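queue> pop job 88
queue> type: inverse folding (structure -> sequence)
queue> payload:
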């Protein structure tokens, strides 16, 4: 297991409730998954995972999996997508925030995903928080 970055706890708690700490880790099993299932994206992963975790451009709450955030970081040539399982109150002791998978995402796929997701945020750029597509400043 290795450390990959820290999350902004206050931002995530507004969506997911009380969190356990701010450190995000990557298990060897999940890293092997990324290498095997997304081999062309692995170089991006190694270079940018800390930026994706610490300064995502978009954060969405996964409607299918509780305590799971979908992170997007926009680069000049592509967009990076990571699935982050958060450790929340009520989880087993010792569970950490953990990267589940990582890959590049096309504009069209991101737009489709954002139409389906209930919550999303664009932190640090505009300060806009959208909840159920109703603008709240």
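queue> result:
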């Amino acid at each position: 297991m290795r450390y990959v970055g820290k999350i902004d706890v206050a931002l995530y708690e507004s969506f997911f409730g009380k969190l356990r700490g701010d450190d995000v880790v990557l298990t060897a099993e999940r890293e092997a998954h990324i290498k095997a299932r997304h081999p062309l994206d692995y170089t991006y992963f190694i270079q940018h995972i800390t930026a994706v975790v610490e300064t995502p451009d978009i954060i969405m709450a996964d409607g299918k999996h509780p305590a799971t955030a979908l992170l997007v970081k926009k680069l000049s040539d592509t967009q990076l997508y990571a699935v982050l399982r958060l450790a929340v109150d009520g989880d087993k002791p010792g569970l950490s925030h953990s990267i589940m998978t990582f890959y590049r995402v096309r504009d069209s796929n991101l737009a489709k995903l954002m139409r389906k997701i209930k919550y999303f945020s664009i932190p640090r750029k505009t300060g806009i928080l959208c909840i159920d597509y109703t603008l709240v400043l």
